[in-house]
Design a protein that fits this description.
The chain is an alpha+beta fold. The protein has three domains: 152 residues, PAS domain (Beta-Lactamase), CATH 3.30.450; 99 residues, Signal transduction histidine kinase, dimerisation/phosphotransfer (DHp) domain (Helix Hairpins), CATH 1.10.287.130; 150 residues, Heat Shock Protein 90 (2-Layer Sandwich), CATH 3.30.565. 52% of the residues lie in helices and 18% in strands. It has ten helices and twelve strands. The strands form three sheets. The chain has a five-stranded antiparallel β-sheet. Strands 7-9-10-12-11 form a five-stranded mixed β-sheet, covered by helices on one side. Strands 6-8 form a two-stranded antiparallel ribbon. A hairpin with a 2-residue loop joins strand 9 and strand 10. It is rod-shaped and about 155 Å long.
Length: 441
């Protein structure tokens, strides 16, 4: 970042210097042209006022201005365009000047001027002509360097100036870069300090966003670390049990009457291990970024009915009465995910209920909103733990969860699916009175 800011500041400075030099050169040259034109005009009027060229019978051979006025060419032209006198060359070598624009303008309006460039000499010649009282024209001219020639002539001096200014700009850019970057570096060092105020008020939103993101990253890292530790613990428990039972059976240390019980325990732990792995894989799929499920219009009530048979069997095995109520309501979602959400919520209501308890699953309309509501009259959730029930591996009643085959990931999966469907979850529960979980689409 420092290098980029530095290089861009230097680039801007060099560009500004070059632009300024070119601009100043052009302005100076234009002023110089105006000065040349003014001097020619003054010279022409002075020569006219001398009345030296008023007599048409003047002996031109006696006129000698070559030494009196250096770098100024004086030409005297008759009414028919014939050159009567020129202080630079002999008149015999000069052609008729009536077609010259400055001569033509002088005959027509009294004054004429023009500029002609010589590509071979890389010079420009300025002409200024005035009409004399005897109807002849007096023209004065001078040669000047072209803009390119002027620019080339000052390149050595300009190079020195550009080099010096560039060196100063480089030093200033380094200093400015340090001043610009230092507050950002200090802000980065104080990301964990909530009351740290950025020296630039424009950086406050950026600082706050970085602080939030930093906190989120730390939270995510801690959650991942906790998840890894929990997974290791949850996997270790059934594996240890399976290994222990298998070791006893292998060593023939179990009586024949207990073998069936040991086989059942091995199968139960294996089933729990498989359910745990399946839930972990499912959470990983839901967490994976870039995974876009197919969404369509789904009848929530019909989807609930598709889950009814399986849930009724599970409820009957635990002596729980389950009822399915509602009406046809459509949501934009993924059918498989919605079935998984319904089954997880209903299985939780069955699992944490008392024998002979009741579970009601409702899909339909409430207050002009489409909702899925699962209600039970089971053990309930203490207020202090209600905010944590959707965390991974969090269990309100750990012993009951393990007895009934719960993995502690069901509600975490429900939370993910709800978020993917832009739905919110409402929880209402009291110990020994039951729980109502409502998903509002």
């Amino acid at each position: 970042m420092k290098t980029k800011i530095n290089s861009r500041l230097i680039g801007i400075a060099i560009l500004a210097i070059i632009t300024t030099v070119i601009g100043v050169t052009v302005i100076y040259y234009n002023l110089f042209k105006q000065q040349v034109r003014s001097e020619l005009e003054v010279s022409a009027k002075l020569l006219k006022d001398t009345h030296f060229f008023e007599s048409i019978d003047i002996d031109t051979e006696k006129i000698d201005l070559s030494t009196d006025i250096e770098e100024l060419r004086v030409t005297w032209i008759s009414a028919d365009g014939t050159v009567l006198y020129d202080n630079d060359v002999t008149t015999q070598t000069l052609e008729n000047h009536l077609d010259r624009p400055e001569i033509r303008d002088a005959f027509e309006s009294g004054v004429g001027e023009s500029v002609r460039k010589s590509d071979t000499m890389d010079k420009s010649t300025y002409y200024y002509a005035v009409l004399l009282d005897n109807k002849t024209v007096l023209r004065v001219a001078t040669d000047t360097e072209s803009l390119l020639a002027v620019f080339i002539s000052v390149i050595p001096l300009l190079s020195i100036i550009i080099f010096m200014i560039t060196a100063i700009c480089i030093g200033l850019s380094h200093m400015l870069t340090k001043q610009l970057i230092r507050p950002i570096e200090m802000m980065a060092e104080n990301l964990e300090t909530s009351d740290y105020a950025s020296p630039y008020k424009e950086l406050n939103p950026f600082s706050e966003k970085l602080r939030i993101q930093h906190t989120d990253v730390l939270s995510a890292a801690k959650a991942r670390q906790d998840f890894t530790a929990n997974v290791s613990h949850e996997l270790k428990t059934p594996l240890t049990a399976i290994s222990g039972y298998a070791e006893l059976l292998e060593g023939d240390m179990v009586e024949d009457g207990q073998r069936k019980h040991f086989y059942q325990e091995i199968r139960k732990n294996a089933d729990r291990l498989l359910a745990l792995i399946n839930d972990i894989i499912r959470l990983s799929e839901l967490d994976r970024k870039g995974h876009t499920p197919v969404f369509e219009d789904i009848d929530l009530y019909a989807t609930m009915q598709e889950c009814a048979e399986t849930l009724s069997v599970n409820a009957a095995q635990r002596n729980i009465n389950i009822n399915f109520e509602g009406e046809s309501r459509y949501v934009f979602g993924n059918k498989d995910m919605l079935k998984e959400l319904i089954e997880n919520l209903a299985q939780n209501a069955i699992r944490y209920n008392n024998p002979g308890g009741n579970v009601t699953v409702f899909a339909g309309e409430r207050n002009d909103e489409t909702v899925l509501m699962v209600k039970d009259d089971g053990i309930g959730i203490p207020p202090s733990e209600q905010e944590r029930v959707f965390e991974r591996f969090y269990r309100v009643d750990k012993s009951r969860s393990k007895e009934t085959g719960g993995t502690g990931l069901g509600l975490a999966i429900v939370k993910h699916i709800a978020e993917l469907h832009d739905a919110r979850i409402e929880l209402d529960s009291a110990p020994m009175e039951g729980t109502v979980v409502t998903v509002v689409f």
